[in-house]
Amino acid sequence: MNTFSNYIPNEMITVFDKDPPWITQSIRNRIDQKNNLYQKYLRNGKNIADLVSVNEACISLSKMIQDSKNAHFNRLSKKLSNPKTTLKAYWSILKSFYSDKKYLSFHL
Length: 108
Known about the structure:
This protein is mostly helical and about 110 residues long. It has helices at about 1-5, 25-45, 50-80, 85-95.
């Protein structure tokens, strides 16, 4: 097994079941960063300078999420319009468009 792990490329990823598919690790990191800024804002007695940095972090985070969401749906639509897409992939993409799950944008 040691030989296999040394010479066969592998990668460990963490998938959170409740997260939408467009949430990436960089977005999770940005959410944590925004939460830390907000906690700092509360600890410092709701300082105006800290509020400005929290608002900037919220704006950049929502832009980052929107860009990631648009890229995800563009990727799916290109895959759906490709004639070489298999039937299983075709129907799974359609089911993802018409799923019962409601993904909301993150706004503060």
